[in-house]
Design brief:
By secondary structure, the chain is α/β, with parallel strands linked by helices. It has a single domain, classed as Alpha-Beta Barrel (TIM Barrel), CATH 3.20.20. 47% of the residues lie in helices and 13% in strands. The protein contains 12 helices and 10 strands. It has helices at 25-38, 57-71, 86-99, 116-128, 140-143, 149-155, 171-180, 193-199, 213-224, 228-247, 253-261, 278-291; strands at 9-12, 18-19, 22-23, 42-43, 76-80, 103-107, 134-138, 161-166, 184-187, 203-206. An 8-stranded parallel beta barrel has the order 1-4-5-6-7-8-9-10, surrounded by 5 helices. A two-stranded antiparallel sheet has the order 2-3. Helix 8 links the parallel strand 9 (184-187) and strand 10. Helix 3 (86-99) runs parallel beside helix 4 (116-128). It is globular and about 45 Å long. It starts with 8 loop residues before the first strand and ends with a helix.
Length: 294
Amino acid sequence: MTRCEEYAGLSVAIVTPFKNNKVDYETFQKQIEFQISAGTTAIVPVGTTGESPTLSFEEHENVIRAAVEAAAGKIKVMAGTGANCTQEAIELTQFAQKAGADAALHVAPYYNKPTQEGFYQHYKAVAEATDLPICIYNIPGRSAKNIEPETIIRLAAIRNIGMVKEATGSMDQASAIIGKTDLTVLSGDDSLTLPLMALGARGIISVVGNIIPQDMIELCRAVDRKDGDTARKMHYKTFALCRDMLSLSTNPIPLKSAMQMLGRDTGELRLPMTPLSDAEKAKLRATLTAYGLL
């Protein structure tokens, strides 16, 4: 049994809908209700997929509050409260705790490229300032520097650091963490869910789960019941769609376009994010059609 085992399965990195450049809270609530109906374990608002870098501090807090209210205790809320300023990360996390969030997702401090000791002291300070379970979000492709396995193993000694969103793409890194800690490791890349769970990861914080939560839940459950045939079937069923979400353009541009095609979002982005080209939209539409969604 891993720490924070209650976060096993599917968590969805939920989008932040916009309408006329303002947060569309009505659509946001509908999207959360969609995840509740699907049986999703947790929603993860204001992360990468939620375009948190383009939100004001006030909007960031308001989206967390709205997520908690819409969840209404029916689904867990793991609020994105990471920052490259430790004090800001602490303040956002303390707000999330007061607002009623169940856990906090903390992206590795980005741009300023901390040393491994800097990563350790950052997460230690955040953890000591809150009672919420903390999920370390390691995504060096965006943050510019890897939190090395040795640092995460060291952080695992801190009581309320209980999860890792593993988005390095490295099976070796995941193996080192899973083999040496009781942390709940969650895939940060949809198409790597099966191989990471085969190593002992416990689920996924998913982008494509915004669209196909039931299929991602089935993949996770198949692994848990050691049904390899079904797990592989679901992996290959979802693979093309998972890849389009990350390869056509920067996340969440393809996802928002897909949700617009499905009538579930305006598709509106905030600069510096820009829409897909017509050719990219055509490819995405073809993938959605082949999947049976259109």
